[in-house]
UniProtKB/TrEMBL annotation, chain A:
NCBIfam families: CMD_Avi_7170
Recorded superkingdom: Bacteria
Protein's UniProt name: CMD domain protein
InterPro entries: AhpD-like (IPR029032), CHP04029_CMD-like (IPR023982)
Organism (species): Humitalea rosea
Automatic annotation (TrEMBL), chain B:
Keyword Transport carried by entry: no
Gene3D superfamilies: AhpD-like (1.20.1290.10)
Origin: domain of life: Bacteria
Annotated protein name in UniProt: Putative peroxidase-related enzyme
One of the record's GO molecular function terms: peroxiredoxin activity
PANTHER family from the UniProt entry: CARBOXYMUCONOLACTONE DECARBOXYLASE-LIKE DOMAIN-CONTAINING PROTEIN, SI:CH211-175M2.5
The organism's taxonomic lineage, starting at the top: Bacteria, Pseudomonadati, Pseudomonadota, Alphaproteobacteria, Acetobacterales
Name of a matching Pfam family: CMD
Organism for this UniProt entry: Humitalea rosea
Positions of the Carboxymuconolactone decarboxylase-like domain: 64-133
InterPro entries per record: AhpD-like, CMD-like, Uncharacterised_peroxidase-rel
Length: 165, 188
């Protein structure tokens, strides 16, 4: 992806000058900082204790849970699709146990589907993996940001359909 | 929906927040990008553990909630209160319900929705906003363009609809951060 590419516009196939691109251009900072948050969460210069593959896998997991296969595909394409974290993220029934990926995906699953169900135990489980507060905040920001992208995409698709009608 | 309140609700973080006196330049810069009212709070200082994401996300939040023109403040605050109710975020509901009341002077309108659910909304514009907001919060993939029609009938133009979508999306995000990184402290 080139530095000028906007993930949302790429997914929706919005041509420059199209009605929806012009509408988004009325809120340039919203466009800029949504792309910036995506970059900081998925492609940070210093990923700390959560690898780029694990970040892509967590985002993939939430996109799959939220039923957006196109966005899911973008996360999958960020890293090697054969990476163990990506492979594990694809199986929504797993993984079981208290291994690192199991704990990470449980946090993503709860936040995607039942955010009010997340408690101190979930944060303690992340700490028990050896993750720092920075890592835990980054993971939580990441799995909480994909639902933003999901609803922005869904809403813009509705406007596209409305214009096409 | 009886757990929601117009009274101020506190928030206790599950991680120890950053302290301004010992924060790094990157952490301080990220806090500066947050709305002034949030900067010194426990929530922003908890998110400051990861300055890169706080800086971008804080700037996104500010523009979504406070950009000039487009959807009026009262409607943004109403929609974000509705998202917060659907997601069960008592803290965010209290904050944005009170901002709705500040903008409209209508505590009884918000209380009616707390007591009777979204179907208790009698104002046609807010009823259209709450129906769209609830649907997009619960199951965005199930929506169709027909669900824009009530918003159009209520008079929302393209920029107002975009602002509404941004507000709904922002609180899909904000509620998840609040609910996972801390506990609400509800007044007795």
């Amino acid at each position: 992806m080139s530095p000028d590419t906007d993930l949302i516009e790429e997914i929706l196939g919005l041509a420059p000058g199209s009605p929806l691109a012009l509408l988004r251009a009325q809120r340039p900072e919203a466009r800029q900082h949504a792309q910036g948050a995506f970059r900081e969460l998925l492609r940070p210069g210093d990923p700390g204790g959560v690898s780029l593959a694990e970040r892509a896998a967590l985002a993939l997991r939430v996109a799959l849970r939220e039923g957006d296969p196109v966005l899911a595909g973008r996360f999958r394409a960020l890293v090697d699709a054969a990476d163990p974290a990506i492979v594990a993220a694809e199986d929504l029934a797993g993984p079981a146990g208290d291994g690192r990926l199991a704990v990470l995906f449980r946090h993503a699953d709860i936040l995607a589907t039942d955010p009010a169900g997340c408690g101190q135990a979930e944060i303690a489980a992340l700490t028990a993996l050896g993750l720092t507060p920075r890592d835990i905040v980054a993971i939580t920001q990441l799995v909480s940001f994909v639902p933003y992208q999901i609803r922005l995409l869904a809403g813009l698709r509705l406007l596209q359909q409305e214009q096409a009608a | 929906m009886t757990s929601f309140t117009l009274k101020p609700v506190g928030w206790r973080p599950r991680l120890t927040p950053i302290r301004a006196e010992t924060a790094t330049p990157a952490e301080l810069a990220a806090l500066e990008a947050c709305p002034p009212a949030q900067r010194s709070g426990a929530y922003a200082r908890t998110l400051a553990h990861d300055p890169g994401s706080l800086g971008e996300r804080g700037a996104l939040f500010s523009i979504v909630m406070y950009a000039k023109g487009g959807l009026p403040t009262a409607d943004r605050e109403y929609a974000t209160a509705v998202v917060s109710m659907v997601n069960g975020c008592v803290y965010c509901t209290s904050v944005h319900a009170r901002r709705f009341v500040d903008a409209t002077g209508k505590p009884e309108a918000m209380q009616a929705v707390f007591d009777g659910g979204f179907s208790a909304e009698t104002d046609p514009r807010r009823a259209a906003i709450s129906a769209f907001t609830e649907a997009m919060t619960r199951d965005p993939q199930a929506m169709t363009a027909a669900e824009l029609a009530p918003l159009r009938a209520a008079g929302l133009d393209d920029l107002e609809v975009l602002d509404l979508i941004h507000s709904i999306a922002m609180f899909a995000n904000a509620n998840r951060l609040m609910l996972s990184l801390g506990d609400p402290l509800v007044p007795k």
